[in-house]
């Protein structure tokens, strides 16, 4: 059957396909996301052929009573890296497909090679790289101290060759580095194109399910934070982990954004050292290292990352604006939230930011998206504005409502205990949290807890 090739344009974000290039995707509304791709259009293509045979004519169409379906209860292979196990809710599930995304150079290959060393499995492991030669991988493994019997390395880009290797070595874990280098030769499009990425991932997913092997694929992410290639990959896989971190800063955060086998709230924290990634089991201490003492505009808060409280420093710089329009910048915090808090301070506390630029930053590169940050950001802004530091040894958390009231937050006790553990002596919490905290009793003998009903009371206790 003669093959016909057709050029199509696929949105890199949502997978929308069109025959002509467009500046803006009509499906997801993103600009400049279309990439060119080549697909086959032959009347004998498998999809067309399959649609001609009615499903009912095929041999077995079967469904099973729910109670008859047996499962191996909660089988997981611990990765041997507790920060990673935390994110994966215990470890890798056999037969699952996991995507590890991150910007080039963040440390994905390093993490996965280290995982090959530490993972608790009796089966062989297959590490497939389309990016590096065998010798390069060997060098990296030596640097990381990775040596393990039954660890097989393969420099390969064809998914069917991977399947062949899985048949011969029968591994319990397959690592693919990276999905952008994989290419099915039967497809006309180039490696890294949306069609290749999608088809190769689908191939690997079938392989994972059919052979009950954990497959981890590495995917490079573009600056905007999308997996380069269609977002479709995220829908397809069981688990999506993002590996984040500034290349200049040494620490890295692994975050689950999708997890079919557990929660997505947890993060794992690592530090890039000379001999690979080291776990940071005490992130609060890490986030606060280098914090200025008695500096105006610096406030410590406690954020929840999943079930774990992490102390972080919120900084605000308030400086006279040199142009007509004052600037508002937020890093590590939600921009709109920061703008709202500035309005709140103007309206409810009488500060006038009209002639001031405001920069709010969560130090250390942590991103805090929960409202418990509000009170600390308010205190940092007021402290920066007045040029007066908040009291030393104090932590502040709580949500700010639009009338300036301090609203209760979840897990207040955990936050207070974390502050006490790190040696803080005072803590301002929303008045509404005070009742439950005193009922629980535990933290009160280790740290002084002050309740604030609104931002005015909070500022009185913190600064003035
Ligand atoms: P790598 O794992 O190759 O990143 P990715 O696979 O995400 O592209 O990590 C590359 C960076 O990590 C590189 O800039 C060097 C640094 N690095 C260390 O600092 N220490 C190490 O032990 C290793 C292996 C890498
Ligand atoms: Mg790499």
Secondary structure elements and their pairing?
Blueprint (H helix, E strand, L loop, with lengths): L4 E7 L5 E2 L15 E7 L5 H7 L29 H6 L9 E6 L5 H11 L6 E5 L4 H11 L6 E5 L3 H11 L3 E5 L16 H18 L2 E7 L11 H5 L2 E6 L6 E9 L7 E7 L2 E4 L3 H6 L9 E8 L2 E13 L7 E4 L3 H15 L6 E7 L11 H13 L7 E3 L2 E2 L5 E2 L4 H10 L4 E5 H10 L7 E5 L2 H8 L2
Parallel strand pairs: 4-8, 4-9, 5-6, 5-7, 7-8, 15-16, 17-20, 20-21
Antiparallel strand pairs: 1-2, 1-3, 9-10, 10-11, 11-12, 13-14, 14-16, 18-19
Helix pairs in contact: 5-6, 9-10, 10-13
The protein binds thymidine-5'-diphosphate (TYD) and magnesium ion.
Note down, in words, how this protein is organized:
With about 475 residues, the chain is α/β, with parallel strands linked by helices. The protein is built from 13 helices and 21 strands. The chain has helices at about 45-50, 80-85, 110-120, 135-145, 160-170, 195-210, 230-235, 285-290, 335-350, 375-385, 410-420, 430-440, 455-460, and strands at about 5-10, 15-20, 35-40, 95-100, 125-130, 150-155, 175, 215-220, 240-245, 250-260, 265-275, 275-280, 300-305, 310-320, 330, 355-360, 395, 400, 405, 425-430, 450. The strands form five sheets. It has a nine-stranded mixed sheet with strand order 6-5-7-8-4-9-10-11-12, sandwiched between helices. α12 (about 430-440) links the parallel β20 and β21. The radius of gyration is 26 Å and the shape is globular. The chain starts with a strand and ends with a helix. The model has no long low-confidence stretch (mean pLDDT about 90). Magnesium ion (MG) binds near residues 108, 109 and 177.
């Amino acid at each position: 059957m003669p093959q016909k090739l057709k050029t199509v344009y696929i949105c890199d974000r949502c997978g929308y396909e069109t025959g002509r290039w467009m500046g803006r995707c009509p499906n997801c509304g993103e600009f400049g996301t279309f990439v060119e791709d080549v697909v086959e259009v032959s009347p004998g293509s498998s999809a067309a052929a399959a649609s001609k045979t009615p499903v009912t004519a095929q041999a077995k169409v079967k469904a099973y009573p729910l109670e008859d379906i047996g499962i191996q209860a909660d089988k997981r292979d611990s990765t041997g890296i507790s920060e990673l196990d935390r994110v994966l809710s215990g470890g890798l599930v056999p037969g699952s497909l996991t995507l590890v995304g991150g910007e080039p150079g963040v440390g994905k290959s390093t993490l996965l090679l280290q995982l090959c060393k530490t993972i608790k499995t009796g089966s062989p492991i297959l590490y497939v790289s389309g990016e590096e030669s065998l010798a390069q991988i060997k060098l990296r493994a030596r640097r990381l101290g990775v040596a393990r019997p039954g660890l097989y390395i393969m420099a390969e880009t064809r998914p069917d060759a991977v399947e062949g290797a899985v048949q011969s070595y029968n591994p319990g874990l397959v690592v693919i580095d990276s999905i952008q280098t994989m290419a099915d030769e039967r497809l006309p499009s180039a490696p890294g194109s949306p069609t290749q990425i999608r088809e190769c991932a689908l191939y690997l997913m079938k392989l994972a399910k059919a052979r009950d092997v954990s497959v981890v694929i590495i995917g490079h992410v573009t600056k905007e934070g999308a997996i380069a290639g269609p977002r479709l990959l995220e829908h397809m896989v069981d688990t999506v982990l993002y590996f984040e971190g500034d290349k200049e800063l040494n620490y890295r955060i692994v975050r689950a954004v999708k997890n079919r086998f557990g929660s997505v709230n947890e993060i794992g924290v690592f530090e890039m050292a000379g001999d690979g990634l080291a776990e940071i089991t005490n992130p609060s201490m890490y986030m606060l290292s280098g914090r200025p003492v008695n500096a105006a505009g610096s406030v410590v808060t406690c954020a929840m990352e999943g079930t774990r409280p992490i102390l972080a420093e919120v900084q605000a710089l308030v400086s006279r604006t040199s142009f007509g329009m004052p600037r508002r910048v937020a890093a590590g915090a939600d921009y709109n939230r920061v703008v709202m808090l500035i309005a709140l301070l103007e309206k409810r506390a009488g500060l006038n930011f009209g002639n001031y630029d405001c920069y709010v930053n969560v130090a250390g590169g942590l991103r805090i998206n929960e409202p418990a940050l509000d009170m600390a950001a308010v205190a940092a802004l007021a402290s920066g504005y007045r040029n007066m530091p908040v009291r030393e040894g104090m932590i502040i958390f709580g949500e700010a409502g639009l009338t300036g009231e301090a609203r209760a937050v979840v897990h207040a006790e955990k936050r207070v205990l974390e502050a006490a553990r790190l040696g803080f002596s005072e803590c301002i919490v929303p008045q509404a949290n005070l009742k439950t905290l005193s009922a629980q009793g535990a933290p009160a003998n280790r740290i002084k807890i002050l309740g604030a009903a609104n931002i005015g009371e909070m500022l009185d206790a913190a600064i003035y």
